[in-house]
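Internal QA ticket QA-208
Title: Verify multi-chain structure generation after dependency bump
Assignee: T.L.

Test input:
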Amino acid sequence: MTDFMQLLLSGVATGAIYAMAALGFTLLWQAAGTINFAQGEFVMLPAFAMLIGMSMGLPLWASFIVAVALSILVLGAAFKKWIVDPMRGSGVVSVVVATLGLSIGLKSFVKASYSAEPHPFPSIFGDEVFKLAGVTISYSDVGALVFAGLMVVGLQAFLNKTITGRAMQAVAQNTFAAEALGINVKRMIFYTFAINAILVTVTALLITPTYLAKFDMGDNIGLKAFFAAIIGGFNNSRGALLGGILVGVLENLAGAYLTPAYKDGVALALFLTVILIKPDGLLGTPQERKV
Amino acid sequence: MKTTIGRSLGQLTAAAVAVAAALVAVSASAQIKVAQVVELSGGGTAAGSQYRNGAKLAFAEINAAGGIMGKKIESMEMDTQSQPAIAKAMTVKAIDEKVTAIFGPVFSGSILVSQTESQKANIPNFTGGEASNVTAQGNPYIFRSSFNQSMGMPKVANYMATELKAKSVVVAFVNNDFGKGGRDSIVKELGSRNIKVAADISTDPGQVDMSSAVLRIKQANADALFAYLNEEESARLLKELRKQGYDKPMVGETTLMGAKVIELAGSAANGVRGHVGLTADAPAFKDFGAKYEKEYKAKPDHNGIKGYFSAYMLKAAIEKAKSTDGTAIAAAMKNSCFKAKDNPGILLDVCFDDKGDIDRESFLVEVKDGKQVVTATLPMLNKR
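Actual output:
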């Protein structure tokens, strides 16, 4: 039972981090009809921004704040203006191809400018552990869980309880109707990109101590987050949370009770099962589109 | 008149082309072309980059000192992307460039595939690969820069039997040629010392989350852990072991105590111990370590030493053979010993057997306060 609890806790902590990146997928899809296949690299870039900040003598928390600002500017505003906006009229496939190209370009850029070697990254919560009812718990797991939980709950509250959040949801549901009601659609879409930029920076802060800062660190997180978003439902932000946690926990259980070799296949198996049984995802709803 | 001028111009052009061709030929013959076919991206980046840097440092030193028999070394770098198929293709490309020797790949899985090409072309091929089967292919052109696993593992097993007095050991390894070869060797050695293997846990190359592997290590409840993974995975394993409060001795062979692993794992590497063939913290490697750190602003690990050693080993072999012919160079190294006092760049006395396996002194180390500390120096296995 102790082992099970250990796996559950660590799985939920990892899953919460997947959920944050997955949430970015669902938000961009809902607000801008964009599937961002460079989401993994969007996690990698802030990690290197924080590393550069620390190499310049800034503490981790200050580097994080600088990275958030840079992310909003580059991964939010610039990404929207120069990649998504010109492509949106050409359909989803064009955006997908563009973000796939962006993913390769970003990896090559970091590899060429910062070396291909992995770099250590400190944990904001430290390396200490404590025991509770026989379960060894690390502050980094608890911190990741609390931080990610707060981010997701806070975002849900923002989207549901504030006027801006509701306006963003209105834009996601029907752009034309939202515009007719006087909502500034362009601004709402920018907010979505900015929120995604914050989410990926927090994800980078929490996951890089384990993944290590490396040009291809986004491959795994991008793929897992994509699976998590599909499993939970691409058009439902709560679904992203559910998908992330499911993937994190089931990976851990399969790794311990079956074999670690099957661990990475769990997300894929779950993804295939869900889209066969419920193509819209566990919490997703069917979407009708004009043809 | 026009005809005479035309003829003269034609003769002049022909003479210029001939002179240029002769200059190119002289310039080419005044150089020794070599290729570094190493892991500069993918899972082996940490190992490949260190190896490349070590060799590059040696080439610069050799060239600054006048080259080998008056010829400068011209080095090309080719990225295997840590994939055997690309390693093979890059080796073929290096052969097309008419190189004198090939350095790398470092990964056992890659050199196992690529060495057939260098063998066909009669080109000496240095490798950092440690899997036992790398030198079991009957290839007269393959040369190791580090121990064969079957030479390092008996020393590790002895250490666990005599120093740690372990009765049971859990073995964790990475599921590639390097890891499987090490796993097979250590299991055999532990068995011959009546040490029980309590659990046999494989991890994937590039695996990022080690939580379930560590839980299984804890569940095995053995007296000690033997871990044999590549650099990045070793660091992640050590971090997770620390996170889950693992408190039994953690033992490794070469990689687990490497400088890159210590850098990546931070304080989680403290307490790790085991056997290393090469360490920048041993007195014989201190000068090299200082030069490497000055050049690359990073501490060298065993792979950096392997690259540096391989470059100087080529120099020693060419000077012994008095030829840059691949077959002569290989023959000069097989069943031969080289002394560090005659060839300072090779850092320690070394001997090669008829298969290309290397023998030299090695070390028992422990990581204390983020540094590798040498606790004992072990002699050559077969003293000559």
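Spot checks passed. DSSP finds eleven helices and two strands in chain A.
Status: verified.
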